[in-house]
Design goal:
With about 250 residues, this protein is of the alpha/beta class. It has a single domain, classed as 3-Layer(aba) Sandwich (Rossmann fold). About 50% of the residues lie in helices and about 25% in strands. It has helices at about 1-10, 20-35, 40-45, 50-60, 80-85, 100-110, 150-160, 180-190, 195-200, 205-215, 220-230, and strands spanning about 10-15, 15-20, 70, 90-95, 120-125, 135-140, 160-175, 235-240, 245-250. It has a 7-stranded mixed sheet, with helices on both faces. It is globular and about 45 Å long.
């Protein structure tokens, strides 16, 4: 009966309802498709602002020299590179992604930047991390949580691998607060992004999914409550760019 219920369970993939067991493969297909153009598209889609968001995210992270940091859904390595500078030669950054194509691309970019020695890549599923309890001073995830099938499971795993006093740090698209800005943002997301995807990456469907996945992601207070529910304390969030993105943080007591 339990297996039948699991097979029948559904979740969202953008605006589509899919079997829960199928979502990870569908998301993997999206990122296999976009990996080679991921950085160019990020710059075009955000007009370069994603770099400022990431820099602010890391500036307020509290990550220090000598820390051990786990970066989940690390994409092409932007957060890992920033974290590596902060932890220095005595620290360590484990740079992970569930998607092999993204991890290969990210590792190459880190090497091109000269970020070597204190960064190690690893394939890892955020819902079932291959790390022992209480290993890290900080766990980061930037623009990856909305693609996770079971977000509470991923948050619980982040909590598990943190040391006491360690921080989870989440940078993710969120709920735009101003109604006029929301209308402009929706028009851009659904009118422009798929067209850019088709012209630059030859793939409009993946960017249609990315726009939809943002709308399905929990808004600010809902995500904050999810973090509290799995055991995080001192949960806070900060809106950036009117709520287009938000930074959430929580501490393991």
């Amino acid at each position: 009966m339990a297996n039948d219920q699991q097979q029948d369970a559904t979740t969202h993939f953008g605006y589509r309802e899919v079997r829960t067991s199928d979502k990870a493969g569908l998301v993997r297909g999206v990122f296999d498709s976009v990996a080679d153009n991921y950085d160019v598209m990020n710059d075009l889609m955000s007009l370069g602002v994603h770099r400022l968001w990431k820099q602010h995210f890391m500036a307020r992270s509290g990550i220090r020299t000598g820390d051990r940091v786990l970066d989940l859904a690390g994409g092409t390595g932007d957060i890992a590179a920033l974290a590596a500078k902060r932890v220095g030669s005595n620290g360590r950054v484990i740079f992970t992604d569930i998607n092999q194509a993204m991890l290969v691309r990210g590792r190459a970019r880190l090497e091109d930047r000269g970020v070597v020695g204190n960064v190690s890549p690893a394939i890892a599923d955020a819902e079932a991390l291959p790390f022992a309890d209480r290993q890290f001073d900080a766990v980061t995830i930037a623009f990856g949580l909305r693609n996770v099938t079971n977000q509470p499971a991923a948050l619980a795993e982040m909590l598990r691998v943190l040391k006491r006093g360690g921080r989870a740090l989440i940078l993710e698209f969120s709920r735009v607060q101003s109604e006029p800005l929301r209308k402009l943002y929706d028009g851009y997301s659904f009118g422009v992004l798929p067209v850019l995807g088709r012209l630059v990456a030859g793939d409009s469907d993946s960017y249609q999914y990315l726009a939809e996945s943002i709308r399905k992601h929990p808004p600010q207070e809902e995500l904050a409550q999810m973090m509290r529910d799995v055991g995080f304390e001192s949960v806070r969030y900060q809106d950036l760019s009117g709520g287009i993105v938000a930074i959430h943080s929580g501490v393991r007591a």
